[in-house]
């Protein structure tokens, strides 16, 4: 069984955290202004999930659950599916229709969370 500490998605979240401090990241904060929680499971949704908060109001990404009320939208993925969506290998709408992505909260907020938010990977 895969360890919760070793997800492919960790590197994506680390890149996103760095991206938020760039001019492009600051533009996203101004443009979107919403808070997302992303739950990533190693193999099966709902089991051993690791949570991240992508706060596009403050421009920060951190591990853990959102503690200042409710996030605008919460996504649940398996590690592989999140990696595919974040790197543009899977369309988010297709992921949702296939059940590879679960959404709680505002659907209109969820629709603003697109792969464009993620920095383009230089080596993947």
UniProtKB/TrEMBL annotation:
InterPro entries: SCP2_sterol-bd_dom, SCP2_sterol-bd_dom_sf. Pfam families: SCP2 (PF02036). Residues 15-114 form the SCP2 domain. It comes from the Eukaryota. This is SCP2 domain-containing protein.
């Amino acid at each position: 069984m895969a360890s919760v500490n070793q997800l492919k998605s960790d590197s994506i979240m680390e890149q996103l955290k760095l991206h938020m401090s760039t001019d492009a990241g600051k533009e996203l904060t101004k443009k979107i202004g919403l808070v997302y929680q992303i739950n990533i499971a190693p193999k099966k949704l709902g089991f051993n999930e690791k949570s991240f908060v992508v706060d596009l109001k403050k421009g920060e990404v951190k591990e853990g659950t959102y503690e200042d009320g409710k996030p605008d939208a919460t996504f649940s993925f398996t590690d592989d599916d999140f990696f595919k969506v974040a790197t543009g290998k899977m369309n988010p709408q297709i992921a949702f229709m296939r059940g590879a992505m679960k959404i709680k909260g505002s659907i209109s907020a969820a629709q603003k969370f697109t792969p464009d938010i993620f920095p383009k990977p230089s080596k993947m």
